[in-house]
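Reviewers of the previous submission asked for a worked example of the structure-prediction workflow described in the proposal, so we include one complete record here. The input consisted solely of the amino acid sequence. No template or homolog information was supplied to the procedure at any stage.
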Amino acid sequence: NPAHQSKFFPDDPAVVTAQCQPFKFTILESLDQIKEKFQFLQVQCHHLKMECEKLASENTKMRRHYVMYYEMSCGLNTEMHKQTEITKHLNPARLFWTTAHQHLKVMCQCWA
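From that input alone, the workflow returned the following structure tokens.
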């Protein structure tokens, strides 16, 4: 059947070009869209990577500060315990005598 054959296999090159042209254009258009989306995703990925690096840097900085403050806190706590132990062992009468003796010493120096 020649009509059936011309429908599926056209002999006219213009018909072949006209039928294939929109298909090629859609493929090229799709490839361009995929390329644009890929570039957009690459830019987003780069921004997210930079943000992650920034957050990692801030995290490291915060950890350093935490360690520094923790060490300071432990040092202050130790010093407070030392002072508490010293105060427990001081006799109030002895403290008064030491203070009075120092006061007397200062007064003697002033009169001399």
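The chain has three helices and no strands. We consider this example representative of the routine output the project will generate in years two and three.
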